[in-house]
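---------- Forwarded message ----------

FYI, see the Peripherin record below. Original note from H. follows.
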Amino acid sequence: MSRGGRAPPPRRSFGEQPPLGAAPGLLAAAAAARGAEREELAALNDRFAAFLERVRALERQNGALRASLGRAAAAAAPRTAGLVQGELRVLRERLQLLGRDRDRLQTERDGLAADLAALRQRLEDETQKREDAEKSLVLFRKDVDDATLSRLELERKVELLLDEIGFLRKLHEEVRCPAPPVELCKPELTAALREIRAQYESIAVRNLQEAEEWYKSKFADLSDAANRNQEALRLAKQEMNESWRQIQSLASEVDGLKSTNEALKRQMREMEAEFGEEIGSYRDVVEQLEQELRQLKEEMARHLREYQDLLNVKMALDIEIATYRKLLEGEERSLSPHTLQPPSAGGAQVRGAGGSPIVSLGVLFPHEGAGGSLCPASGGSHGGDSWLLCPPVLEPVQSLARRMVLIKTIETQDGQVRGPCPCMRGLPLSGAVPTWGVDPIRVLNHPCPPQQVVTESHRQRAELEQ
């Protein structure tokens, strides 16, 4: 069954002549098919109008989106760039200040470390001096003890000598006292006593002088040694006290330097942690802004691609509308008031008013699976006066519902057809899309596949000859 609900006529074998009474029925079927095609074309036009309206709405929406995106990008780019540059400039200045502070603190730390090393060396030297002074003090104490023992021994000897001197004095006194005269050889005894007395006096005087001189010399030596030891002891004690004071001051200074160093290190760590977090946050902000910028660029590219696809669809639909219009005009010209001539040579031929040749129904409405093709009636080229439908037999009513339409999209450059299709190259734009009045055989039997519609930026849309 065809689309209009009418049953197709019975098939005729090859070479069978159609009856003369079948011409009005064929014409009525063609008229009905034409009306159905008009309805179909009207539906297609309505559908295409809806497509065009949708394309226009999408174009308006795309234009609005592109404008808003451009405004947003133009408004956000300077602000974002200025904000980022300002933040980066502030961060760079703060980093420079921190770097200078760090260098200054490192220099101070190095100076304090050098001073600390010098103070430690001085402390070691003073400690060594103190130890040497303590050793000297021990030796001096030993000398003082020895001098004290010597002094005690000398004092004991002095006492003994004083006792001996007293005894000699008593003896001298006794000698000086006159003894009772003895009447025995008086001159000789007197001389002997005088001589003994002189000897003892000289011995006593000499011993006394020697003892006094020895005592004085020893006492002077001991006094000098004691004075020297006392002075050395006083100097050693004074030096030791000074060393202790220096050690205490150096120890307190070292403790202060240690605490200062720890405070500086702690301050450096705190500053690094604080500004490290700020730098990380600013880097996150910059990365977020860059991500948003990339997303905006991707969205813009996506909208541009969608817009380009819509342009391609619009161009294809424009070409399809023009093709439908040309087909409709061709069919209107072909199905205008005409007369049906009797067929000859087993084929079907339709002529218009005035005997002008019309494209055969086999071209307009080929039947699927029928295998029919056009043959020139005179055996010439395609531009002959009449066209015949070669076998198998045409079924016009059934084939009306299966009209073949070939839509080609042509790639153009500078007003000329270009692309891989060799048979369409060099044609002007007016003949780029063939119509029924140009060469239908070339359209239906075209060996090349349809080409991809190109964009308007580098290619021009094919215009159909009105």
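H. also flagged this: Confidence is low (pLDDT under 50) at residues 1-22, 338-413, 415-466.
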